[in-house]
Specification:
The chain is α+β, with helices and mostly antiparallel strands. It has a single domain, classed as SH3 type barrels (Roll). 19% of the residues lie in helices and 48% in strands. It contains two helices and five strands, in the order H-E-E-E-E-H-E. A five-stranded antiparallel β-sheet has the order 4-3-2-1-5. A hairpin with a 3-residue loop joins strand 3 and strand 4. Pfam families: VEG (PF06257). InterPro entries: Protein_Veg (IPR009366). This is Veg protein.
Length: 88
């Protein structure tokens, strides 16, 4: 079982990447995996928010809990070269 300290460690590691461009892979169940590019917009005590640009709909925001990262339902990858990805 995940401790509060483990979830706090995940939150603090995400705080270092605020405003950076990321690749988000989310498992929606029944073998449906969504892959989107976005910006890590905000970190709250229980959830984090990613701003995603979709050409059809414009901007949208999704939020996930830190336990989603812990259980690998959501995976994040921070891009090394922040200037090469156009999300804005």
């Amino acid at each position: 079982m995940a401790t509060v300290q483990t979830l706090d460690n995940i939150r603090t590691s995400l705080e270092r990447h605020l405003g950076k461009k990321i690749l988000l892979k989310a498992n929606k169940g029944r073998k449906q995996i969504v892959t989107k590019k976005g910006i890590l917009e905000n970190v709250y005590p229980s959830v984090f928010v990613v701003k995603i640009y979709d050409e059809a709909n414009g901007y949208s925001r999704v939020s996930y809990s830190y336990s989603d990262l812990l259980t690998s339902n959501v995976k994040l990858k921070v891009f090394k070269h922040q200037d090469k990805l156009s999300v804005s």
